[in-house]
Amino acid sequence: MAATSSRPPKKKGDAATSTGSTAQNLSEKTRVRLVGLEAFVELNDQLGTLLSFDGSRGRWQVRLDSGQVKNVRVNNLVNIAPIASEDGKPAKGLKAQTLAPEDGKPARGLKRAFGEAPSLKPQATPLRLRSKSKAKVPEAAPKALVQRPTIPRPNRPAEGPADEGGRSAAKKPKVARDAATPAALAGKKQEEQEEDEDAPLFSDVEELEGEEEVSETSDEDVDEEDDEEFDWEPVGALEMPKVWPREGPKPGQEGFTQQASRCLAQARLGTQRSPFAGLGMRLHQESASFLLHPDSPVERLLVDHATGTGKTLIMLRMLDNYFDDPRPKVAIFPKHAVCDNFYQELLKWPTRWRHFFCFLKPAEASLASGAKDWRRKKFDVWDINNDKSRAEAKTRGVRLEKIIRELTDSIQEALEMRHAIRGGKVTSKFARGFLEEHPDAPMPKAPL
Predict the structure, then answer these.
(1) How far, CA to CA in Å, does 223 sit from each of 227, 381, 424, 428, 438?
(2) Mean pLDDT of all residues belonging to the chain
(3) Which of 94, 249, 347, 357 allows an S-S link to 90, with CB 3.0 to 4.6 Å?
(4) Of 99, 106, 94, nearest to 31 (Cα)?
(5) Do residues 12 and 163 lie in contact, with contact meaning Cβ atoms separated by under 8 Å?
(6) Residues 117, 309: Cα–Cα separation, whole Å
């Protein structure tokens, strides 16, 4: 049975602030909450700190508590800084800051100050009360449990903790999974009360592995608009020379090797007239990329050569050749380290896959390119170990490897296009919205 969900109720105080804030009551280092985002609903209710304001675009740069940096419109930000009245008490509608009695010990049943604990969903997990013997302020939720942003699922409201079905079953705590018998269910309430006394904050939330985060969009979840055929013209495809004959021997048939040799020579590979000129490719890389192309009769190709001679670049160019093919592209790697290297090379070399990622996530693209506007280096070879990445790591007080890890995960999530595909193809609703916002951007017809 498909999981069902309902939109969570509005929190108190949202009515007064849901219309957004103005630039006058916001300033640098102000704590804010994101509201009213429609394209990226999973970012709603996330907390962050204002960095700087871009007056030309009317957006604030916000560093979220999860570590990401986003550009957000003013009317999607709510100032959550507590406003104290004249008597020193928090104003009406705001939760009190954590206070300690005169003896210096934490008071019973303390809660964290409003806006400190990041929520995983638009509705926050209730904070737990502390026991008498171990009354201390709970620690902040670990960053690993903060949901990473993905492409929004078409026409799906935010999922709440009350969801039933496949996805919510995978996220239930181990205690709930083990309590399958009637006897276990009978003692479940008492067992949870005992565990609540000393359990850390959000301890009952488990994050799905990347392989399990698949789209569960059913026919009922998709707009009627997505039932309509929607097509778009390719953007940025390389112009290949028309050297392959319409009729001729196929791979494996007699005479094909001689025909392929003639076509490779006529394509002027390795010269300034090559379709790959200016892309920094060697002759053997151009030859392999030319053979595996929609215009070529070759449908399967085994490339065997030594380590360090550019096999990843060949893969990237072949995948770019089939960027407009409606079939999903599947890249298989023997180890996670090899897969990470593939995405880092994808950030390095100019392809339409990289361009699509940059239009989708311009903040991350700026960090990877080392330029304020990534378009200035659109066709350049990027070094993700650039000065801007190092400065970001220094500002956040983290290692450079963490910044690279975030960039790698970001481009992988963007190109997998979870929650934006149906039957292995991009939904027309997502495609229309993306192309209306970025008419000059390349748009893949299937995920990578």
Answers:
(1) 7, 40, 16, 9, 22
(2) 72
(3) 94
(4) 94
(5) no
(6) 49
